[in-house]
Fold this sequence. Notes:
By secondary structure, the chain is α+β, with helices and mostly antiparallel strands. It is built from 15 helices and 14 strands. The radius of gyration is 32 Å and the shape is elongated. 32% of the residues are buried. Residues 3-35, 97-142 and 201-208 have low confidence and may be disordered.
Amino acid sequence: KQWYQRRVRANLSDMSRDTTSDVIAGELEEINLVRTKDDAALWLVEMTGCEMDVAVMALQRTGGDISEALDILPTLQNRGSTDEAIRRLVEAADTATKESVLPDTKSLPPSVPTSVPPSLLPSAVDSTESPAKQEGGSADVLDADDQGSVSSRIRSKTGASEERVRAALRLCGGNEEAACDVILRQNSRNSTKRKRSAEPVATDETEITPEKKELIVLCWNIDGLCEQALSERFSAVLAEIKQVLPHVVMLQEVVYEHVARIRSVLGVSFDITLGDLSSPYFNVLLINKKRGRARILEKKVRTFGKSLMGRHFVQVDCEIHGRVFSFFTSHLESLRENSVERTHQMQQVLSIMSKTTMSNITLFGGDTNLRDGEVSRIPLMDSFDDVWEVMGRESSTRYTWDTSVNKNLQVKFKSKLRFDRLILRASPYLRPRSFTLVGKTALVSCDMYPSDHWGILAHFDIS
């Protein structure tokens, strides 16, 4: 019984948890309407077809987080059928012990082992006298001479000991072919176990198929305030994220209409940190949970006290490839007349970045709205590296807001500005490798770009 339970429960750890991406795909605007756990449970039942008690259990285990509940639903749904399979196997094992017959495994789920466990072979029955002989003998039971010849043939075919052969014959009701099959399957399983034990095991320091130690960051103001072709443009942003699969995504000017799709399309792979939701638009910072053995350590959202536009910044501390990172993103005060507040906000963020643990790799990305002439008025800026400058100040990647090319805003003036920046506290463990702009292809469906800003895509080497 214990052997069966260990085997079946071990299968749970091998079950895939990626099926939720197939179940919950596309635009699920309803998720934004969920307000209570009862509503959430009903929504999960309607969208996935799971049982109500399974949906409630998933929400209880994840503290009501719908995206995490979706992630663990496949495991919880399989567990019910697995527990039932264990119960049936226990009954079958009892029958095998009492009646000396093989358990009926034809009706069991394919994930449940069907061969007789090694612990049952030598001890499940009395090896000195069969139940049939105790009842006075049966025409179906082999006599001593026949059993001796059968045992010899089985030993020659399988290499098993006499004790294992006798036990297998009793469990199989004297059927030579079935007894051979039981022993051969057990031999095959033991051989597989030995091979597996000789294979390298993944640890925190090494992986069987090591992932390249790099950091990919995407930073983008997605212009959620422009309602024109909002859905089509955001679809292009999501497509870029799914194609590149960055370790970190920093988004600015996200609106409530985006949240449901972020959770449904990216929630399985990314940890999502939303900014100040009291504002009609906000920042979002995403960490890819499936790359670089990422592990979230701490999250913070801080508002700028003197902002007239609800501006704030998001900080997420996490571990990627064994290194601790502190990521920051923000959308600083807009418009030329707010230069003083904007530079004060940048100074405030840099001050917090400079106070993080020195061993942390600290990186800011966002729409700073800074004009080049304003940078010199930020005292702490000299202590940090501008990634575009480190990469050689390429003219082709300088301007992230260019109305001479990008006509989304349909303004009459032409302006080129480097609003969007990546700012890094110099570290011996992180070296910029590339700096490119994305979102520069207009969408055929609406004749607009995904945003009025180009996005920044940067690759770094981690040492």
